[in-house]
Design goal:
The chain has about 140 residues and is of the alpha+beta class. About 30% of the residues lie in helices and about 30% in strands. The strands form two sheets. The protein has a three-stranded antiparallel beta sheet, with no helix packed on it. A three-stranded mixed beta sheet has the order 4-5-6. The relative contact order is 0.14. This is Organic hydroperoxide resistance protein.
């Protein structure tokens, strides 16, 4: 494990039943039923949770980059995240697309924010070299 100066936060969950079970955070704020993708189950799935977490973190990283560049993030900024569960030759893997909307910003400024966010977002760092990622700026 990497040496760290300070742990800012630790998310803790307890999961039972795997993809067809349930997951609950230690503080009770997250309490979800899980279902395998493509089934009629009532719950969400790990890929949806990963997409939600990554897009929220990425938008936060855009905000950090914007503050450093002294640029205001548009109030209607949005990120659509897609995380694919794939199978090739019996091996599972993920691939992802982030579609970023920063309306009202010059394209060059928006692109600089997206590139900076992709360098600082912890999810982007964790997936780099492990998950094929396409980031589209619209």
């Amino acid at each position: 494990m990497t040496q760290t100066d300070k742990v800012l936060y630790t998310g803790k969950t307890h999961t039972t039943g795997g993809r067809d079970g349930a997951s609950r955070s230690s503080d009770g704020r997250l309490d979800v039923k899980l279902s395998s993708p493509g089934t009629s189950g009532a719950g969400t799935n790990p890929e949806q949770l990963f997409a939600a977490g990554w897009s929220a973190c990425f938008e936060g990283a855009i905000g950090l980059a914007a503050r450093k560049m002294k640029v205001a993030v548009p109030a209607d900024a949005a990120i659509d995240a897609e995380v694919d569960l794939c199978l090739v030759d019996g091996a599972y893997f993920l691939q992802a697309r982030l579609t970023v909307s920063l309306p009202g910003l010059e394209h060059d400024v928006a692109q600089a924010l997206v590139e900076a966010a992709h360098q600082t977002c912890p999810y982007s760092k964790a997936t780099r070299g492990n998950v094929d990622v396409v980031i589209n700026l619209v």
